[in-house]
Design brief:
Strand order of the largest sheet: 4-3-5-13-6
Number of strands: 13
Radius of gyration: 33 Å
Strand content: 15-25%
Number of domains: 3
Order of helices and strands: HHHEEHEHEEEEHEEEEHHEEH
CATH class of the largest domain: Alpha Beta
Number of helices: 9
Distance between the termini: 44 Å
CATH architecture of the largest domain: 3-Layer(aba) Sandwich
Largest sheet: 5 strands, mixed
Structural class: alpha/beta
Mean pLDDT: 88
Helix content: 25-40%
Shape: rod-shaped
């Protein structure tokens, strides 16, 4: 049957093009191959399908009947291919991912929302947490993590970075002398992020990096909480730039030592090694880095 279907497709194209040579050119075959396949089809059917002459081809009665069915066959095949292609573009099934809680208000989270809107049939489960999840044990397809990565059997790809700002509230700054050097901040109160040491490195072009070690009365386990406590006037911190943008614009937060920068934190996507290239997880990854 496979041979007959292939020959029917060649036969239909030959009639549409009006010659073996025309069909061969469209199909990237030699004219002799096209002619041979149609001759074999005629032998298997026991009927002539085409009257051949030096100038043109014409259909026999049997050829006309088969040609109409061949066109319907090709049309059905094209519809099937189009439907499968559309389904491939429109993702279905389930996808579980985990992100840092600090990314809830990030542009990256907005892109995930856009991905969901493009694929409304996809069931997406998002776990926001600052604790490291075991992807295999918890059935997680893709994780977004910050910082340097430990060696593991997981696949990884850098997808961006988190820019940070050195800030405090306008009210807290009013109780201090405006700093001129990073080490001036060593004696200030800081809102400490529990998973990071009580120190920050600040960098400036043409200068050696400055490591500022500090004391803190307030420690939180979440970047969003660190930002909020800073807004409430409890000290200095280094939240993500997207968290402090509104506060800097309305004046409730002040950027300290703007000539000195807090090094950005790299962002990586992590996934199990056996995740297929065309999987939902890899499709989301490609969308995020596009």
């Amino acid at each position: 049957m496979i041979d007959e279907l292939r020959a029917m497709a060649l036969f239909a194209e030959t009639i549409k093009q009006g010659s073996f040579r025309g069909a061969a050119k469209v199909l990237n075959l030699s004219p002799s191959v096209v002619s041979y396949q149609i001759s074999q089809l005629e032998q298997r059917l026991g009927s002539a399908l085409i009257y051949r002459s030096t100038r043109k081809l014409s259909l026999t009665h049997e050829g006309e009947v088969l040609y109409q069915h061949a066109l319907k066959m090709l049309d059905c095949a094209q519809q099937g291919l189009s439907k499968v292609t559309a389904n491939a573009q429109q993702l279905t099934g389930k996808l579980t991912i985990t992100l840092l809680a600090a990314l809830i208000r990030s542009p990256l989270n907005q892109k995930i929302a856009q991905f969901c809107q493009r694929h409304p049939r996809l069931k997406l489960n998002i776990i926001y947490t600052d604790s490291t999840q075991d992807l295999i044990a918890n059935g997680i397809d893709l994780a977004i993590r910050s910082g340097e990565l430990p060696d593991s059997a997981l696949k990884a790809r850098r997808i961006g970075q988190i820019e940070r700002k050195l800030v405090c509230s306008k009210g807290y700054l009013a109780t201090k002398t405006k700093p001129k050097h990073p080490q001036d901040l060593a004696s200030w109160q800081w809102v400490k992020l529990a998973m990071l040491p009580a120190a920050r490195t600040l960098v400036k072009p043409g200068r050696e990096p400055e490591l500022v070690q500090f004391e803190s009365n307030v420690s939180v386990n979440n970047v969003e909480a660190m930002h909020q406590m800073t807004v409430f006037g409890l000290g200095v911190s280094t939240p993500s730039d997207f968290l402090v943008k509104a506060g800097l614009n309305d004046g409730s937060l002040v950027e300290l030592l703007p000539d000195w920068q807090v090094p950005p934190v790299p962002l990586h996507a992590i996934w199990p090694a056996n995740v297929a290239q065309g999987s939902n997880a890899r499709r989301l990854l490609e969308f995020l880095v596009a």
